[in-house]
Specification:
three-stranded antiparallel β-sheet; about 35% strand; mainly beta; about 140 residues; four-stranded antiparallel β-sheet
C-alpha cells in the first residue's frame, strides 16, 4: 500500500532550522484582553455606533475622530490587591488595552458628535458633515 504525505514547504528537517519553526505561522492573540465588538448603523444625517466594552470604566475609554476615521481605545485595570495572609493560587485578570479603528464613507462633524457609556455599551452618535457644494471654475 502506498503511503501518501502532504508536502509542506515550511517543513524543516534540520535541528537548526527547527529553531525557526512557526516563524511564518499566525500569532495567537491573548484572549484575556477585552475585544471591542461593535455595530455601525447609518441614516441620511448620522452614523450610530454601539460598541461592547464590558468591564471598563468610562474614564478609561478614549474616542478620537479624524475626518472620516474613528478610533476607540479602552484600558482595562483589574484590581491586583492582595490581602495579608492570603495566597494567590492563580491570576487570570490583568491590565490590558483594546482598540478598534474604522473609516466611514462621509466625514464626521466632530463638534456635534456625542458619546455615552452605560452597562458596558458605548454609544456614539456621529453626525455627517455637510458636503461642500462643488463650484465650477471659469477657465481663462
Amino acid at each position: 500500500m502506498a503511503h501518501i504525505t502532504r508536502y509542506d514547504p515550511f517543513e524543516m528537517t534540520d535541528s537548526f532550522d527547527n529553531l525557526f519553526r512557526g516563524f511564518f505561522r499566525p500569532v495567537r492573540l491573548d484572549k484575556a484582553l477585552p475585544r471591542i465588538r461593535m455595530d455601525v448603523k447609518e441614516d441620511e444625517t448620522r452614523y450610530t455606533v454601539h460598541a461592547d466594552i464590558p468591564g471598563v470604566k468610562k474614564d478609561d475609554i478614549h474616542v478620537t475622530i479624524d475626518g472620516n476615521t474613528v478610533s476607540i481605545s479602552a484600558e482595562v485595570r483589574k484590581n491586583t490587591e492582595q490581602k495579608e495572609g492570603e495566597r494567590v493560587l492563580r491570576r487570570e485578570r490583568h491590565v490590558g488595552r483594546a482598540g478598534r479603528s474604522f473609516s466611514l464613507e462621509n466625514e464626521v462633524d466632530e463638534a456635534n458628535a456625542s458619546a455615552r457609556y452605560e452597562d458596558g455599551v458605548l454609544e456614539l452618535v456621529l453626525p455627517k458633515k455637510a458636503a461642500a457644494a462643488s463650484r465650477r471654475l471659469a477657465v481663462q
